[in-house]
Design a protein that fits this description.
The complex is a heterodimer of chains A (263) and B (381).
Chain A lengths: L1 E6 L1 E3 L21 E3 L1 H16 L3 E7 L5 H10 L3 E5 L9 H15 L4 E5 L10 H9 L3 E5 L1 E5 L5 E7 L4 E7 L2 E5 L11 H7 L4 E4 L1 H4 L36 H11 L4
Parallel strand pairs in A: 1-4, 1-6, 4-5, 5-12, 6-11, 7-11
Antiparallel strand pairs in A: 2-3, 8-9, 9-10
Chain B lengths: L9 H28 L4 H9 L18 H12 L3 H13 L1 H6 L2 H11 L6 E4 L15 E4 L3 E12 L6 E7 L8 E7 L5 E3 L13 E12 L3 E2 L5 H37 L1 E2 L2 E2 L4 H29 L5 H26 L10 H11 L6 H13 L2
Parallel strand pairs in B: 1-4
Antiparallel strand pairs in B: 2-3, 3-7, 4-5, 5-8, 6-7, 9-10
Classes of the chains: A alpha/beta (263), B alpha+beta (381).
Chain lengths: 263, 381
């Protein structure tokens, strides 16, 4: 069972996140980055499948030099090897271009039984790359899994539970398939000292666009379908509204809440 | 603000990163409630143990991480900046393996260390007695020879992890020859005749349960005597030199936590139309706190590097323990002052930090004993 986990290096959500002033793309230089926390669930799920059976977990990321940290973290958790697609031309890519690069990288890896992703990145939070990627690879996409069971090994099936507001769905796909997982699916492990030491010896390949046969004109900011035209910092929170109770405090509160559709 | 650290290797940098992640995700959300409820942080130790953080300064062949004290101590400091009781527990536990790792025979190391360093076990360190605190040589707990080994009888006091530990690194008298009549034993936690008193009602460090340990004819296998018979005092003092560094590092982390909370507050709290940090009286207080924390860190790291290089470090360890714990007392007290009335309430952790700081001047050798150690080094030249 060969599993590829797609991960993203994102700015730390606890830091002051911002954009580059020059081209309005996410600032990845001046903000500390890390493996997207939502992707830790995908790594954990892959490790659990391999530990329960056999196989290999490959971590794949597309990003600048620092994105190697995201791969390192996943290797420290226990993944077997890493692939880092790093090319200056990718800077500013949108979800469409990102899915193209990921798809070509997975094709180059070949012989992949299962692709696992997080449900979204914690920076862009689009959540569309998994389905785009499945489409490009011609794989069934079973998304937002809060439970995943793989039966029959490679050539078998992947069954997920998807928890919706109104119903819970159980969906089975034949392998190879793509599964995106939510933050409800497991409790990601911490790396350990042994994992840190082992990760130093694990292979990480770095590929450029030319290795994937992707033309620079297909990716990057110029090829993006959408662009950020301007940005402003979120204004500070405004003072709350104080209701003076002149005998009608209750109805004023109810009116306030119903205006905002809380009641 | 996380302390700026220059780590000696990439893996040490990653270890600090891992420690901070565990502290942020697992320890920080639990500390306030646990300290209030006085619960033993078993889960915290388990998480740290599985990540390999309970056995850092010991050989990899026995389950340790072969990390120098310079690295191990900074991990302890990071833990202390979030949960002092747990950091003290890590330091105490690390100390309990010291006699076997340093003075045990190869057979003893192979038999005992893998479990001690597995991360699944916790040790306790039984040295003090009700009537033998600073004066270790006056201890009365006695080990008597039996056919199978030894039988221990007596009472130990101020024992961290009492009743929770998997083994007790115990010092007992094997002859009446004062300081030359002590020996070191590793007593299993489930040994018959081993009982524990009610935990002491302490001023702080509520998640570090401390109580008396009673030995009533506790049988100990002959193979569990560590070092030579009569070498106990030497082992205890050697272990304490290392243990003092753990406490110095923990005290530094505690002081850092207090400073961070005080600086945050001084940045936000407005009085007289400006943030209180803009008043020089307060700004200088913060500056002195920073100087105290930074110098505490520098003294313990200096001692650690001497130890790691195989040089003598006993005097420097005593200096580090003295400087870091006095700094912790001063910084936590001043941090309460920065927060004013708020600092005196349980709504903020500062009052707890201040209570926790006090004991660091007392345990692992009182600061008066540290001065004795330092001055003896000076006068012995």
């Amino acid at each position: 069972m060969n599993i590829v986990v797609c991960v993203k290096y994102v700015p730390d959500a606890q830091a002051e996140r911002t954009f580059n002033a020059s081209d309005n793309t996410t600032d990845r230089e001046n903000v500390d980055g890390l493996l997207s926390e939502l992707d830790e669930y995908a790594v954990e799920e892959a490790l659990k499948i391999v530990e329960a059976g056999e196989g290999e977990v490959t971590v794949l990321t597309v990003g600048p030099d620092q994105a190697a940290d995201a791969i390192k973290k996943a290797l420290q958790m226990g993944a077997d090897k890493g692939v880092h697609v790093n090319d200056a031309a990718i800077h500013g890519s949108d979800a469409v271009a990102t899915s193209l690069v990921l798809a070509e990288a997975i094709k180059k890896l070949g012989d992949v039984d299962l692709v696992i992703t997080g449900m979204a990145s914690t920076d862009g939070t689009m959540g569309v790359v998994p389905t785009m990627l499945a489409e490009r690879l011609g794989l069934p996409a079973v998304t937002f899994a809060s439970e995943l069971t793989v039966d029959g090994g490679a050539g078998g099936t992947a069954t997920i539970r998807r928890d919706g507001d109104a119903s819970t769905q159980t969906i089975t796909a034949t392998l190879p398939a793509l599964v995106s997982v939510t933050d409800q699916i497991n409790e990601p492990r911490y790396p350990s000292f042994k994992g840190i030491m082992a990760a130093k010896k694990k292979p990480v390949e770095t590929w450029a666009l030319s290795d994937l046969g992707v033309d620079a004109s297909q990716v990057g900011l110029d090829a993006a379908w959408t662009k950020v035209s301007s940005f402003d910092a979120r204004p500070p929170r405004t003072q709350g509204e104080i209701v003076n109770d002149e005998g009608d405090g209750g109805s004023k509160l109810a009116a306030f809440l119903s205006e905002r559709k809380f009641v | 603000m996380p302390a700026t650290r220059l780590m000696p290797t990439d893996e040490a940098t990653d270890l600090i990163e891992l420690t901070r992640e565990i502290c942020r995700k697992d320890l920080a959300p639990k500390v306030d409630e646990a300290e209030r409820a006085r619960t033993f942080p078993e889960q915290a130790f388990r998480t740290l143990g599985r990540a390999g953080l309970l056995s850092l300064p010991y050989p990899e062949e026995f389950g340790g991480a072969d990390q120098p004290y310079e690295v191990y101590l900074q991990v302890v400091e990071e833990i202390a900046s979030v949960w002092m009781s747990v950091a003290v527990g890590v330091s105490v536990h690390s100390l309990t393996a010291y006699p076997v790792a340093t003075f045990g025979t190869k057979e003893q190391q192979e038999a005992l260390l893998p479990d001690m360093l597995s991360g699944e076990q916790l040790g306790a360190y039984c040295l003090s007695e009700p009537l033998a605190g600073s004066d270790i040589a006056s201890m009365t707990t006695r080990a008597t020879r039996t056919d199978a080994g030894w039988s221990l009888k007596g009472t130990k006091a101020w024992i961290s992890h009492a009743g929770h530990a998997d083994y007790y690194t115990t010092f007992a008298r094997t002859s009446d020859d004062g300081g030359r009549g002590l020996s070191t034993f590793i007593v299993p936690g489930d040994a018959p005749g081993l009982t524990f008193a009610e935990p002491e009602k302490k001023m702080g460090l509520h998640c570090d349960p401390v109580s008396q340990v009673m030995f009533d004819a506790v049988p100990v296998d002959g193979a569990r005597l560590i070092g030579r018979e009569g070498d106990g005092m030497k082992l205890a003092l050697s272990a304490l030199d290392a243990g003092r560094l753990g406490i110095a590092a923990a005290a530094t982390g505690l002081a850092q936590a207090a400073l961070d909370a005080a600086a945050d507050y001084a940045n936000e709290r407005q009085q007289f139309g400006r943030r209180i940090g803009d008043f020089q009286g307060l700004a200088f207080l913060l500056a002195d706190m920073e100087a105290a924390v930074t110098s505490a860190r520098a003294t313990y790291l200096h001692a650690a590097r001497l130890k790691d290089a195989g040089r003598g470090f006993s005097k420097e360890a005593a200096v580090a323990k003295l400087v870091a714990t006095d700094a912790a007392m001063k910084v936590t007290t001043d941090a309460v002052q920065v927060l004013g009335g708020a600092g005196y309430t349980e709504d903020f952790p500062l009052e707890r930090y201040m209570r926790e700081a006090k004991v660091t001047q007392i345990f692992e050798g009182t600061n008066q004993i540290q001065r004795l150690v330092i001055s003896r080094h000076l006068l012995a030249r």
